Predict the structure.
Amino acid sequence: MATFLYKLGRLSFRRRHFVALIWVALLTLAGVGAASAPAAGNSSFSIPGTEAQKAFDLLEQRFPGTSADGATARVVFKAPSGEKMTDPGNKATVQDTVKELSDGSEVVRVTDPYQAKAVSKDGTVAYAQVSYKVSGMELDEAAKDALEDSAQDARKAGLTVEIGGDALQAVPHTGSSEIIGIAVAAVVLVITFGSLVAAGLPLLTALIGVGIGVSAITGLASALDLGTTTSTLAMMIGLAVGIDYALFIVSRYRAELAEGREREEAAGRAAGTAGSAVVFAGLTVVIALVGLSVVNIPMLTKMGIAAAGTVAIAVLIALTMVPALLGYAGRKVKPMGEKGKRLGRAQKKDQPAKPNLGTRWASFVVRRPIAVLLLGVIGLGAAAVPATSLELGLPDDGSQPTSTTQRRAYDLLSEGFGPGFNGPLMVVVDAKGSDDPKAVFTQTGDEIKGLKDVVTVTPPQPNKAGDTATITVIPGSKPSSVTTENLVHGIRDAGADIKADTDANVLVTGSTAMNIDVSQKLNDALVPYLVLVVGLAFLLLIVVFRSILVPLKAALGFLLSVMAALGAVVAVFQWGWLSGLMGVEQTGPVMSMMPIFMVGVVFGLAMDYEVFLVTRMREAYVHGEKPAQAVVTGFRHGARVVTAAAVIMMAVFAGFIGSSESMVKMIGFGLAIAVFFDAFIVRMAIVPAVLALLGRKAWWLPRWLDRALPNVDVEGEGLRDASGDDDGDRELVRV
């Protein structure tokens, strides 16, 4: 592989005009496609195989034309202090609002609070429910404006009016903090390279790669039903890995120049050595992201595949466009150490080389491996403790900031009707195979009334055929509570008994039941996902490192860092620690898909640092150094660049903490803290400590397996022949 990438790097350097033209053309094509494509909405949220989804599909069949997937809005009214919603003036205002709302072309129906008995017992709160033909993201701006105008008219009459539901759903934005993250990355690159030109190359190539990837996602969003969150996450991951991969190529190029090689030769060697590490690091990220498809949640699968595509583009750009741009930069990219020479800090021949920070740190770890290992493991273990209290759920209006009308509507409904009113359960009774459907409907309602934590059970509402009915159940607890989850399971257990007696199917659906089913599905898929992804990456790393224990150590270190990161997420988003600093206005359960998504992304990123750092150690060991000295050598040449790469990733991910979308905010924080734990504690402390303790055993591989494995030549041994150098004894420097 190193020889092929070496030739590709030299070709890209020589044919830089052609390479640059191809990538600019791809960027233009993707941009035109994105601009001309129809606007994307939220990805349809379906969870195949769950009871809630089966009930939803049954409603579509048995209650045609009800627009079950259409947007809804709850217009909540509260009377002024000392008045009631049943007072004539207030009642007239509400009825005028209902009439005004009914005039919309996309409106299916509007319920009158006084006819639907949607007035609280104390008479102070009432609500009208508006149902639309299309989803919230497909709703015309005119319809949203009409909804807000109607509420404003009622406010002028003296009522407090707030709007809940998904009709006012907005496209999330990331805010200015994303730009700050990129600016931090730029500063780190300038410090690392000491040159604006060298620092600008990784940023430029990363932005081009992300531009192509996100534009392609935007262009295909409508056709492939990709939500807005998909492109945001692809941008987040694409920026981070794009900058890092280009950083490693440019750093190796400067090291090759410092060895005295010509620029074209240096570009080829950079692509052949650091480029090999980039390919395998990118493969681990792609495996982890594509592996999300085993969960069988379409939205999660699309997010993973889209992000994986962006990572693949980042790898290709690092291998081709970076060498091409190095050709354009010419002498503006200086050899490593050139700045020190120009400032008069060149090393004198009779003076010993001053060890850099990476060398000093690695030497300390090698001398004190047990102490460093224990300190790192105990520290990460302490950070992981909050993860034992992890509660999972999906966001609803109760998780919105208190400044939003959706959250205020949620609070008004809780005040007037109880906390469970915001998460009603819809029970679908399929009595098509029963002899007396009406009796089954009644029996089901009576059974549910006898369950704990049930406040209200509405009369069954049968369809025209009379073989299916819906029953609305109002719990006594809020939607995200464990008590409500127990109620859902209780209804399903009662439904199993009814099926045994009457052969009727009782299904529970609604947003609350769907959230519960999603959490369960994700929990069930976590172990198979870990086995698949970690297993495939383990095999890949055996090929790269030609060792059993090194990949095993890499996987165990990853588990430590991801558990510590989950603990930090629980502490901030569930317990509320530092919530003000992070802009978390409402604490609550952690996003259901957060653990499995974090496992996928963090595993891929963790293997990045493992590959970049440990391949240099293996190269030194293969070239005859003792195991402990090989660890120090790996840090001498790789620690500075890996540190810069980790800081850049943290800055990019942290930039998304300013997003208005709670899931993006949580993932941005989780990934940033996970990179910190993995890069600076696991890879920089635990990994060298373990390798120092293992010694030569770390690089042990059974002979039969050594013969069976392909030789991918990550160390770049084949480059000595390919380049035609006569300095075959010269040690190659890997970054």
User: Anything to note?
Assistant: Residues 511-545 form the longest helix (35 residues).
